[in-house]
# Entry
Amino acid sequence: MNRRHIIFTVLSFYALVTTCYSQPIASSDKIPVLDKTKSYPEKGFEWEADVSYIQLETSKDVLMGRTCYLRHISDNRIVVADKISGDVFIFDITGKLHAKFNQKGGKGYTILSSLAYAESEKKVFIVDEVYKKIYVFTEDGELLRSFKTPPKTHVRRIYNFDKNTLFCYNENTSGTTEPTKPYFFISKENGEITDYLDLEIAKIEPRRFSVPIRKNYTMGYAWGNNFPKNCKFGNKYILANRSMDTVYLMKQDKSLTPLFTQTPSVKSEHPTGVNVGMIIHNRFLELFVESYDFKEAFKICKSGEKWDPEYSSYILDLKTGEFFKDSNKSRNSVRWVDIPENTDAGLKQPWRILEASKRGMIRDKLLKELVPKIDIQDNPVLKIKKFK
# Structure
């Protein structure tokens, strides 16, 4: 799990979180409650999985920066995109480049806030939070159309839902006391809202705060990566955000099933929240509890120190509703990735692999065999785990 780091100007959360799918609890009508103050029985969990590594093509035209992240993976395609530079790379499942483009600037996007890839339609949808627009491109980067996000909304993430619709996560990062419906669906043609999920949040807490440094001068801080995450596995979605106590499963028919709730509330005086990890074997849900206490962060940042709170790792048995403290602190997680069910995937930087190899820290036989083929200048290696 990535740790949080304070840079002088920005407080960034690198929360471990990803995505998940599961069958809802069938044995009980009672929603499990995670008491974050309680001591749960400790248990070690080892997940059996088939692991594979894919070297992504590297050439003078295909070079990824360190801010490139995995956005989509299927049996046929891998999509990696860079929020800052605006690069979009589409590979086949062997790692060979299929298509690429960069339409940042000019009449294109200013920042690649979120990306949804409609594989069957061969289209890429990109959200630009700065101009509150969604751009629709072909795989080769031809702009087909663009449209404004719905009025009075703050669309932060989009997901490919069906051939006509995008699923949106709506959050005002400056905070608001206005009741907010955080999840809705929009038309792929014109961006008009077609439906809402029956969920409403009374108050959204801000993600930014300012620290007075000296007279007439303040320094701004912001949560870097949204915490917790909403996740998509196959055609099932985990809906988790730091303004809701309850985490839900949404299916393709838009039905909602509460998976668990948490106490103390995320609205408590010193809030903690649950990062949702991954559902393993369609039964066990990984959870990571971390603090995001603005008051504590403000105090520590003002003193010039680094705020680096501890996290706790739990497992929820979705069949029985029982919680366990995970003694292994499992780290199965993907961030904002549209990914097949029961699958974990992530990019591994070549320099990290080579450094680990020099130190004799690589135990994985497949990765060991790959080391001689890796150059430090190469693009990342994609690791995929398919749980049995």
In short: The chain has three helices and 30 strands. Residues 1-28 have pLDDT under 50 and may be disordered. The radius of gyration is 21 Å.
